[in-house]
DNA sequence: GCTTGAACCTCAAGCGGCCGCAGGGTGTAC
DNA sequence: GTACACCCTGCGGCCGCTTGAGGTTCAAGC
């Protein structure tokens, strides 16, 4: 029987985050001591590990909810889980492309800065110069 | 004299976002018509373009506030702006590294999925298998 | 058995960076 | 003069947590 603090340590999660997951129904309500403190078992450790791992892979909580649901129903087709992963992969690739563009622009800015006064700072100049804008008006991939 | 809607169009910003920037003091309070509608000039268009461009490069609003302040004082040393940009570059590089790791793991997951039932789905298996966790417990770079 | 102090509890609000809606007023073209 | 697109304020919502206040419980040491 794990306390919430131990569960937190073993999964690299904050205590509050675990309670948050319970609140939004991602983690089940655990057993309690007479005094009302939560106590967890291995099954819950596994579930939380699943969630954390998926979060690290960039899945949204909604996607994780779907994945957990699939995982809870082993008879279902794998296609859905696969689709979620593929969707996620596409997103990651888009973000990567975006970030690479950012890196090159930032690198250029930083390297061209001569270190004088702000009046001729290349960093500020690039930001000011509308013509050098990234071409589209997308949101940032961050 | 631009209406807020035109300013929005010319900078690829939502009207509400411009009002939000004004509210948090990133954009100055503009002039108003007798009826109370905002009217903008070129200077404000430039400032907003600067902000949007910096946002596209992933700078936080706080960083942008500093950059704007530097830009408003052309006599100051450029070093600070340079430092902000370098910080941003480091962050971008960290995210890139993180995302690249995610991509390879997701790619592996997707390639290994055999298309059967969820019981033998690699996607879910990888997420379940604690031993395959990314080594650290960092937050995701997203 | 008693005391300490770390860990737990609930509830609520806050963060960044906006977006969207309701319910109304304005500006301009015909 | 009227239609209708646009503007206004204010507030609540989004995600994925985090922080804080104010109080209770548990386990170890004496």
For the biggest β-sheet of chain A, the strand order reads: 1-2
Overall radius of gyration of chain A: 23 Å
Mean pLDDT of chain A: 84
Q: What characteristic shape of chain A results from the CA principal axes? A: elongated
Q: Count all strands of chain A and give the number.
A: 2
Largest sheet of chain A: 2 strands, antiparallel
Unreliable stretches covering 5 or more consecutive residues of chain A: 134-142
Short description:
2 copies of one chain form a homodimer. Chain A is mostly helical and 142 residues long. Chain A contains 6 helices and 2 strands.
Structural features, described:
- The structure is a homodimer of 142-residue chains.
- Chain A has 142 residues and is mainly alpha-helical.
- Among the domains of chain A are: 4-58, Multidrug-efflux Transporter Regulator, Chain: A, Domain 2 (Orthogonal Bundle); 96-132, no CATH class.
- The first copy, chain A, contains six helices and two strands, in the order H-H-E-E-H-H-H-H.
- Chain A has helices at 4-11, 15-23, 42-56, 61-72, 79-112, 122-128; strands spanning 31-32, 38-39.
- Chain A has a two-stranded antiparallel ribbon.
- The longest helix of chain A is centred in the last third of the chain and has 34 residues, at 79-112.
- The first copy, chain A, is elongated.
- Chain A starts with a helix and ends in a 14-residue tail after the last helix.
- The relative contact order of chain A is 0.08.
- The interface between A and B is large, with 63 and 64 residues.
- Chain A binds a DNA duplex (30 and 30 nucleotides) through helix 2.
């Amino acid at each position: 029987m794990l306390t919430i603090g131990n569960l937190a340590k073993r999964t690299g999660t904050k205590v509050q985050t675990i309670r948050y997951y319970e609140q939004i129904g991602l983690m089940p309500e655990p057993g309690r001591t007479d005094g009302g403190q939560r106590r967890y078992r291995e099954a819950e450790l596994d579930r939380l590990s699943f969630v954390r791992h998926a979060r690290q892979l960039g899945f949204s909580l909604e996607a994780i909810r779907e994945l957990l649901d699939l995982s809870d129903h082993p008879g279902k087709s794998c296609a859905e889980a696969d689709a979620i992963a593929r969707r996620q992969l596409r997103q990651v690739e888009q973000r990567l492309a975006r970030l690479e563009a950012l890196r090159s622009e930032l690198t250029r800015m930083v390297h061209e800065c001569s270190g004088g006064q702000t009046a001729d700072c290349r960093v500020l100049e690039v930001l000011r110069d509308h013509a050098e804008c990234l071409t589209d008006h997308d949101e940032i991939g961050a």
